[in-house]
Write the structure tokens for this entry.
Amino acid sequence: AQTVTQSQPEMSVQEAETVTLSCTYDTSESDYYLFWYKQPPSRQMILVIRQEAYKQQNATENRFSVNFQKAAKSFSLKISDSQLGDAAMYFCAYRSEENSGYALNFGKGTSLLVTP
Amino acid sequence: ETGVTQTPRHLVMGMTNKKSLKCEQHLGHNAMYWYKQSAKKPLELMFVYSLEERVENNSVPSRFSPECPNSSHLFLHLHTLQPEDSALYLCASSHARHTEAFFGQGTRLTVV
């Protein structure tokens, strides 16, 4: 099974600043999908951004962007102009394209604290 | 609100009880999932249903029994649970293999 590693258990950023959350993954596949999910205290997992492995262009969604390095198997999330509402657990997730599995493989998460 | 609703939100049960978790999605998706989220551990996939047929079962103990009567509803029947089964149980759905999953708000289960 593919493993997803988030090496930063906790991160802190000041409001309006930029923060980058790291994610690496291990796979032998060439086609797959990567996601970042946000889990606020309400516990609901919310999709932040997705990236198809076959696309070279990094995905962006407003203040959120990724740095996808396929050869390095790295998929970091950059949050610009951080807001208090960005405080949450952030999970990186991998989904296979090639196998019959449907599942998302998640990392352990990074807790993001946003300070005023 | 993502269109995936889980009930109850909180559940406390004894080890000899039988209870069920319910998940309902109104998104027209054809796949549904149960995940377990424990403290300090990655989310663990428990079951996957596609078109109402179970396609994955990740070595989950038999005290957890899923049921998918139709594409909009998913249940997780619980019996003779252990305290280590206390966790947040998340339901999710997706339209196809290649799209992201949408999650419910979870059921916080405590086994006493």
